[in-house]
Amino acid sequence: MHRMNLESMPDEILLEIFDYIPGCDLIYSFYNLNRRFNSIIHGIRLNLDLSYVQQKTFLYICHYILPEFYQQIYSIKLSNKQTIDGINYYLEQSKYLQQDQVKNLILTEPTIEQLIKLMSYFPFLKTLIIKTSDYLVVPIEYLSKTLRTCRMPNCQIDLSNLNIEEKEIYFVEELHIKMSDINNLFTLLYSMIYMKRLTCHISENSSIINSNINSQQILLLLNYLKLNICSISFKYIENLIDLCPNLTSFIYTYTTGIESSHDNEHIDYERWNNLFTNKLHHLKTFDLHISLNIDAQRDLVFITKKFQELKFLITNHIRIIYEITSYKHIICTIPLMKSHLTNFLTKSSLSNIPNAYSRIRHFDLVLNETILNQQQHTIRCPLVHSFYLGLYENIAPIEQQSRLLLNQSISFVYLKHFELYGTCITDGFVAQLLSKMTNLSSLTLPLTHLISCQINETISQNMKKIKKLQLALTETISIDCVNNVLIPSFPNLNSMSFAIDNRLQSFEKILLAMIGKVNNNDNHLKYLMFLELFALDQDWNHTLLTPLEKFIRYKNNYRFLYIWL
């Protein structure tokens, strides 16, 4: 039998294999093995992910890979979150390098100062993605004219220096942003006529309709539009649709804000019918979600029926339902008929239930006896990836019924993330659930039930796949728990969150045990790179952290401490 080793493979096959290997691992594993591998590596694009790595890997990349291979780096991911202040460190290490060849940049939690400096480092970007919990205002002059994809869902573009009279054009094809004034969106689109996909959250209504709207250029290439609107006149939406004659996909969400005078415009079925009939000739995909303040004069049954009679919705098999909560009226589309809803106009057959929620990826459920008794039909969400379960009532006598409900609702094999909270949870119930979750990578549960992860071999094998673990921030972890439960049960952890009471437990001992610095113990969390700690006793004291600075980089925020290992 002829056996083929890696070196005997043709270059084309090696290039295919190398595409699946992160740039850092590729160089660390194959560079300098022989001249052939060196030649291949020097001829490929490198994608560097510095957003979620251990300190030693980050330093290795900055000190050895960047100076040697900077001309081949095509894509970079940087973060200030898990790699604490990693963006500043990268800026310092790479400030003398020419990085014109970098085309893709992905940033997590950058500051506006860091973003502006990075834009000067990478003048020919094609893709810019910013993930941030802070609200950033990005001056448009710092966006490269070469950008094709720009995703900044929590950022606004400052247009104060945009010169419309000179018809300054940007070549962005995909844009995801937030705007504080819808007139600013029209101004921006005037300079982005090559747009193909637009996702925008607009939070305010302008008091004056922009006079330039009528002279706006038509966005002939725009085929995907997703709008999240708050208290804005529907007239603006109609004006925007006028600029998008070739839309094939339209996703629209409207929510009542402080100003509710425009609410009824958005549920005017005649105006929607005019859009479908006279303007959206190419539309194939349509999703609608309208959430309004409760109005006793509003007849939701009549409005829903009128919407459902629209020719476009009938032709494309799109269903409309209404829901009434304690403070909202909701009208929305659904993928298929939901026969368990009592307010549905035309009930579907039971055969439709297995597919009714096929698009649901996240499922929240707080179990109590009332819900179990009132559940007439099973809600099936077969492809759920993320599941939150709360148990705050003692339902031990009907645990079997709870398990039956969950088994019928969720295919546990698809779950990647599971959160369990509550004060009335038994170890047996936890074990039953964890034994079914064979592909979990992220787990949240109360500290008292951590021992459930060792009940049997099936659960133990499942827990070895966990990369991210969060323990409830109400009880302190102990050194015995770390040594006897945590390390043996979760050997492949990358990140972890837990609480500690420094009056009862030694933070230093716990950290050193986790990273194997106690008597050179090999039994530790080898892949751990990020910790989030909550102090139950008082705010973090820097004197407690000073002896550990040779092992960690950290930042603290009152009782929270973030550590990069």
From TrEMBL:
Output the InterPro entries linked to this UniProt entry: F-box_dom, LRR_dom_sf
Which top-level group of life is the source organism from? Answer: Eukaryota
Q: Where is the signal peptide?
A: none
User: What are the residue boundaries of the F-box domain, all occurrences included?
Assistant: 3-55
According to UniProt, the name of this protein is F-box domain-containing protein
Species this protein is from? Adineta steineri
Q: What phylogenetic lineage does the species belong to? A: Eukaryota, Metazoa, Spiralia, Gnathifera, Rotifera
